[in-house]
Amino acid sequence: MSANEDQEMELEALRSIYEGDESFRELSPVSFQYRIGENGDPKAFLIEISWTETYPQTPPIISMNAFFNNTISSAVKQSILAKLQEAVEVNLGTAMTYTLFEYAKDNKEQFMENHQPVNSTIPISSIISVETPNTAPSSKKKEKKEQLSKAQKRKLADKTDHKGELPRGWNWVDVVKHLSKTGSKDDE
Fold first, then answer.
1. What is the 3-state secondary structure (H, E, C) of the chain?
2. Distances (CA, A) of 48 to 60, 101, 144
3. Which InterPro entries match (predicted)?
4. Residue 20 sits in which domain range?
5. What pLDDT was estimated at residue 126?
6. Residue 131 has pLDDT above 60, yes or no
7. Which of 51, 54, 49, 148 is nearest to 104 (CA)?
8. Domain tally for the chain?
9. Averaged pLDDT score across all residues of the chain
10. Percent of the chain scoring above 70 in pLDDT
11. 52: how many CB neighbours lie within 10 A of its CB?
12. Among 74, 85, 151, 148, which Cα is nearest to 115's?
């Protein structure tokens, strides 16, 4: 079988095995991610496996550079990658993506035994300085809204309908005056 046929068969197998598994994610037909550990688990990590053109005769590219792994020290990442590379060498020439994901799941505790969460993120409160404006009543006077008299309110209400809108054609006199002053070019 050619490398492409092997890859197609493995792709079908991975899709059927991990169907409905929230930890598995197919990034492309040759690149996959798997979260080892539950969501919210401080020892959870993400492995990304990408197939080369000649995979499985040549080793896949294994990465732990996902943002999800930011709290894992580079020493622990290197240790996990080294152990996974050993498994790759044992399985070279065969479909191994599933085997690598399962190997990582089975050895999660051993992989993460030296894990001390690295706080590589900066708390939002230190990035954004929240300032409350000084609202002293003496420093700023609130602008008073113009008050209408009863007569003004009544006149305004008479001009508008019950929704507060002016009736259609309310300014027709103004339009006629404007047109008579400017003169229409059709008259010439």
1. CCHHHHHHHHHHHHHHHCCCCCCEEEEECCEEEEEECCCCCCCCEEEEEECCCCCCCCCCEEECCCHHHCCCCHHHHHHHHHHHHHHHHHHCCCCCHHHHHHHHHHCHHHHCCCCCCCCCCCCHHHHCCCCCCCCCCCCCCCCCCCCCCHHHHHHHHHHCCCCCCCCCCCCHHHHHHHHHHHCCHHHC
2. 10, 9, 63
3. RWD_dom, RWDD4, UBQ-conjugating_enzyme/RWD
4. 1-110
5. 43
6. no
7. 49
8. 1
9. 78
10. 78
11. 14
12. 74
Per the omega criterion (within 30 degrees of 0), is the bond before 167 cis?
Answer: no
Q: Please, are residues 66 and 45 in contact by the beta-carbon 8 Å criterion?
A: no
The pTM of the whole model exceeds 0.70: no
With respect to residue 163, please indicate whether it lies within any of the assigned structural domains.
no
What CATH code is carried by the domain that includes residue 37?
Answer: 3.10.110.10
Task: State the pLDDT confidence band at 48, using cuts at 50, 70 and 90.
Answer: very high
How much is the pLDDT for 50?
Answer: 92
